[in-house]
Amino acid sequence: MSKSPPSLPDRAAELQLHQRLLDDDPTATDDFATAYLDYLVTWLEENNSAWARDLCGDAAERAILSVLKNPRSYDPDQQTLLAYLRMSAKCDLQSLIAKEQRHHQQRIPMHAVELSEDAGKYLGRLDDPSTRLRLHEEESDLMQSVPPSVLEGLSERELRVLDLMLHRIKKHDEFAVAYEVTDLPLEVQKLEIKRVKGRLQARLKRAREDDERTT
């Protein structure tokens, strides 16, 4: 049974919301994401194959973020904001699907990826040389346990986020610094970090599943 889509702004309301983004209204980013994100996820899930549903949230977030980062990318004279977001989300989903297909063609079995329970407690005590050495050795061991299929193609920013995840760090501020999004509005930061963490978690999950099938 399909889910009922959330209510959406009418034409006047969406134009007003878009103008608020152009005017750098500090509350507009949160209102924009609240108005459209859940709808886009639902719309993508209902109009694509079941196997693509894991990617729908990521695609919807990318479409939202593209407008939040550059509100002028949308031209109100060309189409409605909803139509623009649908087109953008659909293109993002197609891109993610293509990337996933390439990834599965290059699968490398995973031998072991263990998240450290203790590593995080050492962070913040970097003034101690012995702690820095221990932390460096621990980070190296953790990264070496991650299979190439997970690390392949990751940017330096993504690797830093993965490192925090492996150390079970939870604080938003640390992820924002690692992913270099501290200059963005808080709501955009959260969407960006959620997106990259979701993608990395999906890679780790696939690697575990591939390893289980080969053992």
Write a concise keyword list for the protein shown above.
215 residues; mainly alpha; Rna Polymerase Sigma Factor, Chain: A; 2 domains; 9 helices; 0% strand; globular; disordered N terminus
Q: Tell me the domain tally.
A: 2
Elements, N to C (H/E): HHHHHHHHH
* Largest sheet composition: none
* Overall geometry: globular
Radius of gyration (CA) equals 20 Å
> What structural category do the secondary elements indicate?
mainly alpha
- Tell me the strand percentage band: under 5%
Helix content: 55-70%
Cα end-to-end separation: 37 Å
**Mean of residue pLDDT?**
77
Ranges where pLDDT stays below 50 over 5 or more residues in a row are 1-5, 105-140
Explain what the structure shows:
The chain has 215 residues and is mostly helical. The chain has two domains: 11-105, Rna Polymerase Sigma Factor, Chain: A, CATH 1.10.1740; 119-214, no CATH class. The protein has nine helices and no strands. The chain is globular, with a radius of gyration of 20 Å. The two termini are 37 Å apart.
Topology, element by element:
Elements: H1 11-22, H2 28-46, H3 53-69, H4 81-105, H5 129-145, H6 148-151, H7 156-166, H8 172-178, H9 186-214
Helix pairs in contact: 1-2, 2-3, 2-4, 3-4, 3-9, 7-9
At a glance:
This protein is mostly helical and 215 residues long.
